[in-house]
Specification:
By secondary structure, this protein is α/β, with parallel strands linked by helices. It has a single domain (17-265), classed as Alpha/Beta hydrolase fold, catalytic domain (Rossmann fold, 3-Layer(aba) Sandwich). 35% of the residues lie in helices and 14% in strands. The chain contains ten helices and seven strands. The chain has helices spanning 43-47, 72-86, 98-106, 148-160, 169-180, 187-190, 195-199, 221-231, 247-250, 252-267, and strands at 17-20, 25-29, 51-55, 91-96, 114-120, 206-211, 236-240. A seven-stranded mixed sheet has the order 1-3-2-4-5-6-7, sandwiched between helices. The longest helix is centred in the last third of the chain and has 16 residues, at 252-267.
Length: 271
Amino acid sequence: MAQQQTDMVAPVRPLARHIEGQGPELVLLHGGFGSWTHWKRNLPALAAGYRVIAFDLPGFGDSPDFPETLSDEAYFDWVAEAALTAARGPIHLVGFSFGGSIAAAVAPLLGDRLASLTLVAPGSFGKPAPRDVTVKPIRAREGQVIDPIENARHNLGQIMFADIASADPETVELHLHNINRGRFASRRLSWQDRIESDLASVHCPIQFIWGGADRMATPSPYARVERMRAVFPNARFDIVESAGHWVQYEFPEAFDAALLSFLASTTGASA
């Protein structure tokens, strides 16, 4: 196995992106084993007042692979360069789950172009404590017979949603499509314990959003709120009480209202 190189910069290659709307620049970073479609239900509301740039991160969706021999910093550099190139002005940065980990690390790299930062159920709180979930395989191993559609639906109900009814056939198909195109081990970055240090030099307005029933946020979303509030007392904290981990998809109206209200307070735009 090749030794990890910590002095290499990110490849200068475009990342796949989905762009909608006009207005201030709003950059969205998806979660692990996802793509820009993690924001599919939010784009109509967000693009009504913003130029939304939703990326496929390196190693996901239609973006290029990330060479495993490159450093973690190379990953962040690549995403920062993509955001700075795609956006025309100040950047409002939003990251979900794994994308929240990336957004927190990328934020300092954007310098004075960073207008605001929203972290949605972010990682970077360290290796999570044992979670009260059961996960079923999506791909058969050693000749076993599985139902990938039913197993994906089960997993969505365990990991992503508070209510398995949210895992309708269209959502299961979207989820499987994203999983099949995921080629980067997101835990390499999202399980690091670095969120405070990443945000130490960030001076723009910061918002945190969690679903109140997010079982990925161990020991609880509320405990993570308290950890962040102790360090960032001026940040804004929003909890969507009945939502699970994929809060922006399960409760898009409540999520959009929270995000747009925060953005309005930083831009002077109407929510």
